[in-house]
Design a protein that fits this description.
This protein has 293 residues and is mainly beta. It has helices at residues 205-213, 235-243, 255-261, 271-277, 281-284; strands spanning 8-10, 16-20, 23-26, 28-30, 33-39, 50-60, 67-74, 88-93, 99-104, 112-116, 125-133, 139-145, 157-159, 166-174, 180-191. Strand 4 and strand 5 form a beta hairpin.
């Protein structure tokens, strides 16, 4: 059993990302035959935020005779010494049915969908699993594969469980001692809501304050109000906050009202006017913050 430390990467300053280094997973003698596993030590919150699991599987020696999983599972289920088969949301191969998306919780097998042809060295399998949480338990998952048409039921599959502390896992078991699977670019990334500058799962007055504090900055990041990725905090970023105002909460102040209290016109006016009037956002809006959730 192998355990790989996590790597935190920056993806346009918009996401927490944990990954498994590129390599090949080779089975070793195990009580039930031959098996091996890799998991990150760092977890990711897939219950508060949507996340995407990405990876490229290059090939397996015995795709119809071995069992392979790669995906996300709650840390409470994962056992570093023995793995945790049939648990979590993951890409899996299942005998003659090919590769697809499987869901399970607490080691109880779940739905299996989207069977596809197995990957090969000539045709690597580049996949994306998107997990959209639903409150404090479970959510829905979808699978996309570059260059392949999904078969069967392609609607989002519902899964259960608390994924607020989940680890990225890869597992392989086989009856063949020489079985292995090669992979590259395996990671899971948080998808933050547009306009959520402080990444707390809400788009509210705090995010508007951050944008105001950094207005017209030409070296900005997501954390300082640049939601378009052009390095500048301007009208386009203000529009994004307006479009997503109230996400994750129910503010008692409408976005237009917040702008008026700050002496600001709506996002539709010419940008020079916004530039002239943007200053009051720092001093006027915080007085109302106590009444905003």
């Amino acid at each position: 059993m192998m355990l790989v430390c996590f790597v935190v990467l920056a993806v346009n300053a918009r996401a927490q990302t944990i990954s498994i280094p590129d390599g090949t997973l080779n089975v070793v003698p195990h009580a039930d035959g031959y098996a091996a596993a890799i998991a990150t030590t760092e977890g990711i919150d897939a219950q508060k935020f949507s996340v995407q699991v990405h990876g490229t599987v290059i090939g397996m020696g015995y795709p119809s005779e071995s069992f392979f999983e790669i995906g996300l599972m709650p840390r409470s289920v994962w056992d570093p010494s023995a793995g945790a088969w049939n648990a979590g949301v993951y890409v899996v191969n299942w005998s003659a049915y090919g590769f697809g998306l499987s869901l399970a919780a607490d080691n109880v097998g779940g739905p299996f969908a989207y069977p596809l042809n197995p990957p090969s060295n000539a045709k690597p399998w580049d996949f994306t699993i998107t997990l959209a949480p639903n409150g404090s338990d479970g959510g829905s998952a979808t699978l996309e594969v570059a260059g392949q048409t999904l078969q069967g039921d392609t609607s989002p599959l519902a899964y259960a469980g608390d994924y607020s502390d989940s680890v990225l896992v890869m597992q392989l078991t086989s009856n063949h001692l020489d079985e292995s699977i090669s992979f590259v670019n395996v990671y899971v990334a948080t998808l933050y809501q547009a306009g959520d500058a402080n990444r707390d799962g809400l788009v509210n007055l705090s995010d508007l304050q951050i944008l105001g504090d950094n207005w017209q900055s030409a070296t900005a990041t997501w954390d300082t109000g640049d939601f378009t990725g052009d390095g500048i905090v301007n009208l386009a970023d203000l529009q994004i906050i307006g479009d997503n105002w109230g996400y994750g909460t129910l503010p008692d102040l409408a976005f237009d009202d917040a702008l008026q209290l700050a002496g600001l016109p709506g996002p539709g006016v010419p940008e020079p006017a916004v530039l002239i009037l943007m200053g009051p956002i720092v001093t006027l809006i915080p007085r109302r913050r106590g009444s905003i959730t």
